[in-house]
Amino acid sequence: MDTRWQRVSGSVRDAFRCHLEDTAQRLTMPGMVELAVVVAAEATAPDHPAHDFFTRWQEKGVKELAERLEAGSRSGELLPDLDHGGIARECAALDAGLRQQWLAGGRSFDLVAVMRAHLDRLVRVISVDGQGL
């Protein structure tokens, strides 16, 4: 499991909050978001030297989030019978897409605020108590 998950309690809400903190921290490192977005896009080509690495890395992230969501359903935090894998993939796609839009748009919107709003709405829909972040 990724070391980022080790500091997170069992709560899905806590995991999402930590993700938002990590994202905000990465935005303070000039060039890092740009590098990650550009290399990840280039690595979609099967013959790219980093293709296998990025494919494994992305799938690992989706799998770990799906497992965290499944644990949330087992613990009673989240509704049962969710499509944990689908939700995890949706979150990964939103994350990647927002980063690309943020860069292409000249950083013209608050990336973390948009992510937070999405995750808040998501948690309201999938949580047993109907509360957001």
Short description:
The protein is 69% helix and 0% strand.
Any overview of this molecule?
The chain has six helices and no strands. The protein has 133 residues and is mainly α. The radius of gyration is 15 Å and the shape is globular. The mean pLDDT is 90.
Order of helices and strands: HHHHHH
| Strand residues, percent | under 5%
Structural class: mainly alpha
Work out the radius of gyration.
15 Å
Question: What is the residue-averaged pLDDT?
Answer: 90
Beginning-to-end CA distance, first to last residue = 23 Å
Please work out how many helical segments DSSP would assign. 6
Largest sheet: none
Shape descriptor: globular
How many β-strand runs? 0
Share of helical residues: 55-70%
Uncertain regions: pLDDT < 50 for 5+ in a row? none
